[in-house]
């Protein structure tokens, strides 16, 4: 089916001075076509346009091919009328694509290839209709018309080919994958487009039209397949050769032409370049970049960098042919042409006169002359820019594609953009000035197309590959003492076109987005090295130069669109730079410089400024530098008084010192909100959300002119986001305004706009999370910050829960709001929840239980997760009825179709089973007797089933299984109904430990087995599954590549408290040998990242070995002796001595269980020495008496342990001597 799209605007136009040939009509009875009168045409535009197309289509269907003159006349009249219509107007929006396609096919049947004049008109009609109506033709029409155009290119005269190619380009637009039948003829070895698009083609019009066709063939429409090989590679080769080719033959003698003629010829080349760059952009948008022969990334980047500076005033670029991945920038030549004396004096005279002309024009413009962005109207490339330097022959200095329009005023200061100091268009006569303006316009379009193409490269090439070329596009030094490097920042600072400047900033933003891992190596906190500069220091210098250059761009920019891009680029930079590894001072200038833009007249600038503030308060929070900036007092006049420091005044007067009343950081001024008062950024965002906007800053697109109207919605939403980031990262500064922020959130929830409600709920969630983090035992709160009193937290939540939050929870029309409200409910402090009124507690629980049966999966998942949080509340976990209701809701959600719901339900089930273990230890048998056996059985079965689900579900399902198997009591195990589920649960855990699931899942499975081993009611030593469990753990502790999994398996093997739990001597020997082998090879790893866990792994293995020694029997001694061979003995002995000598090794804690759940798993090294001495005493005492004196097994084990103790004592004595010597020699 035909469809409508947005076409790439083509400025291709050709001469209409063609020879006409006779043509005869085939149907003499056919009525002549009479156009509608102007009065009729204005009656009803849309209906009239449809009727017009229908009449034309009907007229074409009534005609029959013949050689009569009547048919020729009819077609001429019909085509002329159709071509004269302006189809871009809104009157033609309702024209059906099918009617247009049918009309064009019928027209192609009526125009034979011998009538070249009519072919020209038909091709013009095809291009005009498809382009202006934005139509992509259907497959049948495409096949008919492409075949027609191909035959015309093969048979018609060459003067018709540009128009035919123009029509062909409109036909193949977005249809490259549907042209498979015609691709051999178009892109084959001797294809039409290949021959016409070759750089050796002398006719530049033909070449440009062919390149335009190739570009449209490369365009891929979403949902459609892309152009296939080998034609894809053919297109890439032609486009790249076009960009690499030298100047065309038509401009060889350009210096001998007049300026107007030279500019005209250059415009043709510029349009060719623009088409080639657009085609390359389409090619790159087709999919991920794949490095294949003849498609070298370095070559493409060199070409693009070359055209990024094409025609840039004051710069002539000689780029290398290929860019290579390198930490240092490659050499490039920048030559500033020196104007000749005679020309320079002439230019100076003209410039003096142009200043008077400017003054006369400024009087006519009035106040608009000083408004921001007025010089950037539409394209803005021709204003305030010095034109290309004329040569002695009157031409323009041109070196191939590397045209450099030189600045006639000399070198531009680096601290101020060159486009601020350009000369006027009045330097030229009117015809020459017009051509020069048009030339600069197209040069800027070439630069813009190159940047768009580079942006496509950034999106389709892997970042890790692209960062190898970082130094070619991002500066690492300001270039003092020499020419500055040509980078994206050069364009942002010096290009006269605001669109080109914005394009360079878009590319830089795309490069910075997701660059956190790459930039994480930047560091300059240490003293600089003299011998060499490490890469970390080079990257840090690049980061500092980015800050400096973007701040200059911010100060000098007056275009609102480009200013928005500067702020967005800074936000991406701030979000990815590791400021904790850099010297402080980068953020303070930026912080102070962007504050005036909060009151900018353009809403997009204000939104981008707030986005940057959000990035500043969220990156690596809390940063000491940001904390100090937030604590500084805010100035009322600087932020709230209209017109004090507008961005335009700032850009022109940035060198002038700030007034006293504008100095936001002046300690002596009378300011609002001192260090003890509310944070100024917090107060500002609250005002932006709640206070009416001020008239001097009202936005034309905000809607409504009432003085009481609020800020535009984007500004309010961004302000709420900044508040959320501020509360999350710097809660100690926001907690003084806790109640005020709660009222603000309640106000937002009460509004009608869903997006505002969502952001209000998110702010509430961050406030609740901040309070919870303050009350956690391991919370690293600043010493000066005190916890929010529980009574104040209770007041806060009482006001919130009596407000519109409950209505948001019940708002089924907005499930996303319900989801966010559920997350908000889950962020209530447990100590505060217990002090809320009983009816409020019941209301929260009832709503959450009801939402677990919602039809929306997001709402259901959020409600189940909130119940998983509530089940850990001390005031609720001992309530058997609440636990049972929550368990039933979770089990229902575990069978949901949505993987997200099942994952949240598994997490909540893990928390619920954690509660069962806590209650078993704190409440005792009373809770276990009241808890339903049938519900416990259902939980065991559901968790076993969930352990076979996806890894997101499985990781928490196995955790729940371990807790449930730990919770089972003899009364449960004695019932036959539990026998089969118990075996299935153990089989699920064993299979998960041995399986190929993610390391987190296997880690949790090992933890679950260790949790199971704590249940002394289980037949651990005699059950069939017992041997399999030990075998699985023994296998993992020796072979798993992940050391955290090994640590947890070793911990599980050391859990059983009696010798009988380890089974027979063979099972005990297997466990011992596995642990000894794992300790011996504990430093062998293929992954360097695992090496950081070696110490923890050795400590856990030593503890497990000592645990087994403490309970070994005489029958176990042969197995112990076999592992203490001559080769293994010194290694194991050394590790055990080191373990006893360690004063404390931090073992890896759990990731899914509650805090402190594994406190009893590990013993300190001092306890290990005690265990070792007790083992020696037992082996030499009663146990030794039962063994014959000739037993070599006992002697070997005892000697080994005595050697360990002796070496440890010697090491301890040596360390004490060293310490005493150091104390005696210290001054």
From TrEMBL:
Cleavable signal peptide: none
InterPro entries: ARM-like, ARM-type_fold, DUF4042, HEAT6
Domain of life: Eukaryota
Sequence intervals crossing the membrane: none
Pfam families: DUF4042 (PF13251), HEAT_EZ (PF13513)
UniProt-listed Gene3D superfamilies: Leucine-rich Repeat Variant
Annotated ranges, domain DUF4042: 445-626
Protein name per the record: HEAT repeat-containing protein 6
Organism: Anabarilius grahami (Kanglang fish)
Higher taxonomy: Eukaryota, Metazoa, Chordata, Craniata, Vertebrata
């Amino acid at each position: 089916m035909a469809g409508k799209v947005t076409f790439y605007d083509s400025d291709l136009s050709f001469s209409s001075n063609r020879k006409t040939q006779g043509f005869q009509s085939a149907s003499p009875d056919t009525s002549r076509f009479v156009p509608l009168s102007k009065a009729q045409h204005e009656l009803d535009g849309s209906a009239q346009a449809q009727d017009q197309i229908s009449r034309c289509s009907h007229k074409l269907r009534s005609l029959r091919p013949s050689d009569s003159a009547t048919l020729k006349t009819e077609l001429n009249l019909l085509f002329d009328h159709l071509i004269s219509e302006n189809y871009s107007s809104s009157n033609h929006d309702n024209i059906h694509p099918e009617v247009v396609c049918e009309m064009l096919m019928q027209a192609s049947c009526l125009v034979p290839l011998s009538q070249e004049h009519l072919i020209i008109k038909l091709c013009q009609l095809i291009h005009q209709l498809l382009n202006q109506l934005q139509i992509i033709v259907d497959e049948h029409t495409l096949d008919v018309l492409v075949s027609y155009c191909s035959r015309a290119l093969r048979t018609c005269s060459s003067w018709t080919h540009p128009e035919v190619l123009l029509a062909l380009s409109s036909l193949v637009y977005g249809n490259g994958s549907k042209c498979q039948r015609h691709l051999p003829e178009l892109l084959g070895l001797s294809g039409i487009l290949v021959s016409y698009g070759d750089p050796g083609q002398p006719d530049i019009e033909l070449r440009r039209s062919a390149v335009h066709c190739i570009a449209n063939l490369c365009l891929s429409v979403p949902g459609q397949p892309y152009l296939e090989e080998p034609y894809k590679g053919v297109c890439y080769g032609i486009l790249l050769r076009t960009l690499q080719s030298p100047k065309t033959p038509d401009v060889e003698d350009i210096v001998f032409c007049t300026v107007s003629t030279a500019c005209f010829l250059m415009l043709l080349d510029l349009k060719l370049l623009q088409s080639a760059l657009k085609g390359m952009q389409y090619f790159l948008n087709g999919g991920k970049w794949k490095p294949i022969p003849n498609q070298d990334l370095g070559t493409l980047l060199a070409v693009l960098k070359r055209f990024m500076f094409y025609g840039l005033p004051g710069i002539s670029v000689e780029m290398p042919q290929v860019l290579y991945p390198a930490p240092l920038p490659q050499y490039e030549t920048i030559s500033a042409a020196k104007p000749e004396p005679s020309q320079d004096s002439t230019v100076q005279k003209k410039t003096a006169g142009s200043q008077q002309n400017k003054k006369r024009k400024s009087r006519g413009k009035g106040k608009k002359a000083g408004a921001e962005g007025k010089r950037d109207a539409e394209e803005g490339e021709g204003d305030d820019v010095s034109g290309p330097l004329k040569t002695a022959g009157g031409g323009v200095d041109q070196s191939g594609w590397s045209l450099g329009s030189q600045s006639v005023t000399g070198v531009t200061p680096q601290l101020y953009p060159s486009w601020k100091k350009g000369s006027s268009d009045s330097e030229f006569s009117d015809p020459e000035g017009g051509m020069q303006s048009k030339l600069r316009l197209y040069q800027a379009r070439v630069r813009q197309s190159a940047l768009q193409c580079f942006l496509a490269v950034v999106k389709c090439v892997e970042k890790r590959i692209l960062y190898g070329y970082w130094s070619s596009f991002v500066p690492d030094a300001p270039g003092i003492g020499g020419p500055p490097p040509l980078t994206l920042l050069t364009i942002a600072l010096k290009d006269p076109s605001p669109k080109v400047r914005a394009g360079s900033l878009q590319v830089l933003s795309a490069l910075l987005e997701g660059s956190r891992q790459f930039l994480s190596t930047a560091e300059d906190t240490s003293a600089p090295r003299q011998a060499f500069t490490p890469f970390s220091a080079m990257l840090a210098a690049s980061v500092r130069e980015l800050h400096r250059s973007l701040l200059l761009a911010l100060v000098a920019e007056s275009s609102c669109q480009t200013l928005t891009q500067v702020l967005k680029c800074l936000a991406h930079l701030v979000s990815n730079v590791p400021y904790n590894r850099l010297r402080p001072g980068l953020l303070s200038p930026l912080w102070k410089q962007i504050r005036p833009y909060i009151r900018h007249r353009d809403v997009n600038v204000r939104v981008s400024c707030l986005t940057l503030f959000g990035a500043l308060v969220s990156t690596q929070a809390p940063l000491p530098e940001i904390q100090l900036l937030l604590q500084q007092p805010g100035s009322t006049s600087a932020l709230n008084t209209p017109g004090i420091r507008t961005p335009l005044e700032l850009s022109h007067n940035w060198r002038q010192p700030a007034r006293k009343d504008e100095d936001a950081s002046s300690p002596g001024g009378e300011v609002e909100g001192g260090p003890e008062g509310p944070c100024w950024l917090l107060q500002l965002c609250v005002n932006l959300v709640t206070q009416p906007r001020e008239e001097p800053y009202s936005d034309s697109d905000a809607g409504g002119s009432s003085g009481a109207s609020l800020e535009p919605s984007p500004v309010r939403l961004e302000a709420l986001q900044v508040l959320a980031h501020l509360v999350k990262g710097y809660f100690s500064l926001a907690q003084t305004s806790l109640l005020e922020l709660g009222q603000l959130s309640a106000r937002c929830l009460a509004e009608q706009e869903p997006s505002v409600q969502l952001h209000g709920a998110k702010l509430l969630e961050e406030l609740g999370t901040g309070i919870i983090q303050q009350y956690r035992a391991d919370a690293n709160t600043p010493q000066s910050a005190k916890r929010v009193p529980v009574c104040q937290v209770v007041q806060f939540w009482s006001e919130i829960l009596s407000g519109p939050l409950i209505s948001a929870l019940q708002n089924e029309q907005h499930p996303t709001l319900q989801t966010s409200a559920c997350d908000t409910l889950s962020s209530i402090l447990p100590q505060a929840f217990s002090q809320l009124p009983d009816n409020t507690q019941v209301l929260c629980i009832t709503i959450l239980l009801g939402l677990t049966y919602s039809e929306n999966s997001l709402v259901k998942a959020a409600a189940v997760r909130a119940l998983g949080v509530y089940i850990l509340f001390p005031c609720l976990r001992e309530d058997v009825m609440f636990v049972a209701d929550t368990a039933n809701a979770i089990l229902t959600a575990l069978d949901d179709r949505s993987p997200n719901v099942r994952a949240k339900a598994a997490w909540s089930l893990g928390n619920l089973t954690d509660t069962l273990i806590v209650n078993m230890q704190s409440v005792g048998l009373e809770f276990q007797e009241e808890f339903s056996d049938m519900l416990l059985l259902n939980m065991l079965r559901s968790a076993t089933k969930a352990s076979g689900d996806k890894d997101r579900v499985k990781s928490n399902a196995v955790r729940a299984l371990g807790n449930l198997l730990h919770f089972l009591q003899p009364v449960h195990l004695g019932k036959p109904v539990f026998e089969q589920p118990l075996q299935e649960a153990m089989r699920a855990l064993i299979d998960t430990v041995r399986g190929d699931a993610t390391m987190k899942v296997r880690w949790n499975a090992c933890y679950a087995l260790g949790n199971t081993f704590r249940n002394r009611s289980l037949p651990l030593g005699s059950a069939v599954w017992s041997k399999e469990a030990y075998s699985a753990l023994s296998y993992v502790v020796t072979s798993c590549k992940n050391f955290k999994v090994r640590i947890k398996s070793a911990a599980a093997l050391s859990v059983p408290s009696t010798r009988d739990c380890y089974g027979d001597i063979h099972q005990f020997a297997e466990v011992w040998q596995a642990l000894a082998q794992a300790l011996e090879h504990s430093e062998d790893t293929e992954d360097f990242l695992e090496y950081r866990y070696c110490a923890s792994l050795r400590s856990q293995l030593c503890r497990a070995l000592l645990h087994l020694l403490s309970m070994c029997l005489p029958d176990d001694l042969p197995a112990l002796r076999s592992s203490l061979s001559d080769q293994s003995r010194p290694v194991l002995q050394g590790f055990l001595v080191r373990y006893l000598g360690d004063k404390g090794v931090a073992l890896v804690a759990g990731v899914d269980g509650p805090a402190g759940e594994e406190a009893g798993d590990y013993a300190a090294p001092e306890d290990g020495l005690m265990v070792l001495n007790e083992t020696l005493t037992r082996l030499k005492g009663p146990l030794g008496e039962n063994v014959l004196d000739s037993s070599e097994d006992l002697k070997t084990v005892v000697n080994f342990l005595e050697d360990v103790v002796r070496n440890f004592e010697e090491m301890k004595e040596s360390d004490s001597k060293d310490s005493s010597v150091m104390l005696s020699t210290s001054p």
